[in-house]
Amino acid sequence: MSVIRVFTRNMATAAKINNVVVIGGGLMGSGIAQVAAATGHNVTLVEVSDQLVNKAVAGIKKSLERVAKKQYKDDASKGQEYIEGTLSKLKGSSKLEESIENTDLVIEAIVEKINIKHELFGKIDSIAPKSAIFASNTSSLSIGEIGSITKREDRFGGLHFFNPVPMMKLLEVIRTDKTSEETYQQLMEFGKRMGKTCITCKDTPGFVVNRLLVPYMAEAVRLLERGDASARDIDTAMKLGAGYPMGPLELSDYVGLDTTNNILQGWHKQFPDNPLFTPPKILEKLIAEGKFGIKTGEGFYSYKK
User: Fold this and answer.
1) Which of 16, 75, 174, 280 falls 20 to 30 Å from 255 in CA-CA distance?
2) What's the predicted TM-score (pTM) here?
3) Which H helix or E strand runs over 190?
4) Cα→Cα distances 171→128, 159, 228, 276, Å
């Protein structure tokens, strides 16, 4: 079966969600847009300027080339067909209002600040079709709180993808107390059509993965802070003793110390009596020194050549 026919078949089975708008063209937004387009959905990727739109689409094209090279290494023509087929389902736009007028689903993947998310959803709520579902890709904020700004809380849920989206199989589907059963089922079906393994979680801090992962990373920082073990030994212990592919301090550098700290600060503010959510002092010290991890060349380890 040709790649183009696969796209057509996927579109035919997507009874509810065919047209998808992804707002935010960073790593997460671009990855979501890429996989949605590759699985036959009509996707519009929205950014604030044409320059950022072009940058995001160019990044997706490079990512598709890598995927094609790996998946179709013995047949370059099929690889090219895959790339062209995916790109034919994808368009970029800097015109937010125009992009959402006929959408079935809006996925927000912008900065992790509640006021900015409220501003976005408040702006588009009256423009998008009444039947459209809104979803946030937030990793740490409350889905219910984000959706509270809208008049469609029954059609609001969470779709928490993992980076890099084309590689990571998991999708956390978050339902609030107000998310309707129909909305939840549509989000689950959408995730499955994207080839993801979907799990369900209530609207609880960090959902499943980050609720376990972030406190684990913070506890590793506290071990280091107390002088109980060196950074290298802590990471080696978890890799060789627990079979983890990456140690907790290496993972913190990869995620970004600022990102990890922002999540902890948000949870600590909301749940001040939970000691697991207290940001470690050494984390705040490194951030104050401009050491955010891999992206700045230094965190718990140095990445400068």
Assistant:
1) 174
2) 0.88
3) helix 181-193
4) 24, 7, 36, 25
